[in-house]
Amino acid sequence: MVKPKIKFFPALLVGLFLIFWVLLLSGNILWTSNQPPLMIIDDMDTQSKATPQEQSNFFPDGGTVRPPVEGTVPRDGALYTVESPEEAETANVNNVPVTEFVLARGKNRFNTFCSPCHAKNAEGNGLVVARGFTPPPSLLRPETKAMSDGRLYHVISHGQNIMPSYADKLTPVDRWAVVHYLRTLQGIEPGSAATRTTVAAAPVDQAQSTDNTATTENR
Ligand code: HEC
User: Fold this and answer.
1) How far apart are the C-alpha atoms of 113 and 93, rounded to whole Å?
2) How far, in Å, CA of 74 to CA of 197, rounded?
3) How close is the Cα of 139 to the center of ligand 1, in Å?
4) CATH architecture type of domain 85-202
């Protein structure tokens, strides 16, 4: 009766060894857990830090991302100094040629930076608006179509009422490319005579389109 005992232990060892490997290899499928793995040294995997778009109690405005310092320009950008739309009329001249590449670039920049509010079709019901931001006017309305390229460039560079300036995100050439692309959405030939001067239908008093105080309450 001694012999089976000697065989039993190697068999047990082999058995345990096999079970160990089966469990180990199938671990991914069978041992699912929502808990973080047990870490003896966590190699800074978890850190106390502020990530973009996160809420924070540290800054008075409740956000983590800081607004760029005033006068910030993108790499290869230039400071925009024109203050009034009237001045913009003559100061800003669109010399960027209308090419397939420029229009594609304009589309890319428009969809990235403008569509969140203005929507990809420029009608003004972008995602941010769907989540409660004050709707901008449709950029296809006659008043906006009547604005010259220089005026559109001014709105992008300077901002208008609650629309912030995009001068810190778009280089001058990119802004002109956006203007050209916006013309195609408006059904106006980019770079044509119609884009050069503002005509009467354009909004006279810029403040009339949206009331600033009402907006802050709505947000
Ligand atoms: C954060 C939301 C937001 C983003 C992003 C935004 N806009 Fe605006 N935009 C507005 C609002 C709101 C108005 C209306 C401002 C007012 O009350 O005068 C406006 C107004 C305009 C106007 C003037 C329309 C008119 O008839 O008075 C133009 C042109 C314009 N935006 C173009 C752009 C372009 C081009 C971009 C991208 C570079 C852009 N906007 C990005 C919110 C935004």
Assistant:
1) 22
2) 28
3) 8
4) Orthogonal Bundle (1.10)
Q: Return per-residue pLDDT of the chain as tens, 219 residues.
A: 556 556 888 899 999 999 988 887 776 666 677 877 777 887 887 788 888 889 988 899 999 988 888 888 888 778 899 999 999 999 999 999 999 999 999 999 999 999 999 999 999 999 999 999 999 999 999 999 999 999 999 999 999 999 999 998 999 999 999 999 999 999 999 999 989 988 866 665 544 444 433 333 333
Domain ranges across the chain? 85-202
pTM of the full predicted structure?
A: 0.73
The closest residue, in CA terms, to atom 12 on ligand 1 is 136
**Could you tell me the distance, in angstroms and rounded to a whole number, from the CA of residue 180 to the centre of ligand 1?**
16
Residues in the chain: 219
